[in-house]
């Protein structure tokens, strides 16, 4: 039986629902020896800003039970490098591309999008949820007023599908989701990392130089599933679900909770072909369950 794996994420046609979580797959080239990037529903690039950012001081990675903490701080070489080196490589391979956009100010988000409008990009993912920067990032994504301000300005800057990435570090994610939808988002992605910290008892010091970082990996999957479920019931635009996905079954669970597409993140660090394994697992599930189109599963949770 052949399963129709195609989905539409707010105007972005994806040949299957699987993309990568920004920041865990670089710009795709780094995984080129392992993954045919054109086989994925989309490649989502690492967050890019107008000019390069150095990121935070080390140590900025710590391993935790069933997860990892990071405080990278959106290190990236800037939008010019992405345009000159990475986007042409992805275009040559026929990849569908989502560029993750970051900024220290509302203006910077718009400037990054404007810089990319002539480039081979299929959609933008606006990151208003990074916990590891002092200005921009999560500070914007926690208040409805700033969400409305940045999303409506990005909306005016492009006709391309606009995905807005939400933080789980809020009291009520559905309030933020509705604000993003009302301001012109075509889709929402969730969740970014969960605030956490790790301590080395022997040295009595925090394991991250920045003390607090973002938790990702299987440890956060139940939180992410709950938030996808709640958000699906609160908005009518499609969702890109992520948080601890490492198997096809994990991904199917996100679709049942209400995701239209899914992103594989931290799992890429342990298994560079995790994306392809997740995709194969999803297809196998559909064959076993007699699912003809993967879209049948979106929000099909029976409570
Ligand atoms: C090392 C690292 C870097 C990340 N960088 C970004 C980023 O640049 N932009 C962004 O929106 N999210 C970033 N994230 C968050 C992931 O895209 C994703 O939302 C989160 O890790 C949850 O998914 P996972 O548990 O499958 O990793 C990063 C995560 C990690 C672990």
Q: How would you sum up this structure, described in words?
A:
Pathway: Pyrimidine metabolism; UMP biosynthesis via de novo pathway. Keywords: Cytoplasm, Flavoprotein, FMN, Oxidoreductase, Pyrimidine biosynthesis. The chain is about 30% helix and about 20% strand. It has about 300 residues and is α/β, with parallel strands linked by helices. The protein has a single domain, classed as TIM Barrel. An eight-stranded parallel sheet has the order 3-18-17-12-11-10-9-4. It binds flavin mononucleotide.
Helix and strand layout, with pairings?
Layout: E1 7-9, E2 12-14, E3 18-20, E4 43-44, E5 51-53, E6 61-64, E7 67-70, E8 76-78, H1 79-92, E9 97-101, H2 106-116, E10 123-127, H3 138-141, H4 144-157, E11 162-165, H5 173-182, E12 187-190, E13 194-197, E14 199-200, E15 205-206, E16 212-216, H6 221-234, E17 239-242, H7 248-257, E18 261-264, H8 267-270, H9 274-289
Parallel strand pairs: 3-18, 4-9, 9-10, 10-11, 11-12, 12-17, 17-18
Antiparallel strand pairs: 1-2, 5-8, 6-7, 7-16, 13-16, 14-15
Helix pairs in contact: 2-4, 4-5, 5-6, 6-7, 7-9
The structure holds flavin mononucleotide.
Flavin mononucleotide is lined by residues 21-24, 46-47, 70, 72, 74, 100, 127, 130, 165, 192-193, 216-217, 220, 242-245, 265-266.
